[in-house]
Task: structure prediction
Amino acid sequence: MFMLWIKALHLIAMVCWFAGLFYLPRLFVYHAACEDVPGRERFKTMERKLYRGITTPSMVATLLFGGWLVSYNAAGYLSQGWLHAKLALIAVLVAYHFYCGHLVKVFRDDSNTRTHVFYRWFNEFPVLILVAVIILATVRPF
Result:
């Protein structure tokens, strides 16, 4: 029963993390297209608060609760290929997360050189990871 609570907390944290990873690059789209100083300053505040206050704590919670779940049967889980694939994708997602943090600083310093079109494409990447991770975790194809 306790494991189900950990699983629920893992899923809640994961949903919050992905919400941040979906919305933060969308803010980058609008920020890159923004032409007025008050608007750019507002986006800087929104990006910083979203990254530091929601997205990063949610990532940490997702990783902690996920690790806790694996620890219940580490030998069993770690012998399954789907989990290795899922963990590899999670590593890529963590890298994407930290790159978003880098971009928050780029915008903060007014040194962005990319257009809103780049960020529109950049915003789609976590969707691909989410689809793959959900399929791996539920279908367990290998």
In short: Helices lie at 2-33, 37-71, 74-78, 81-108, 116-122, 125-139.
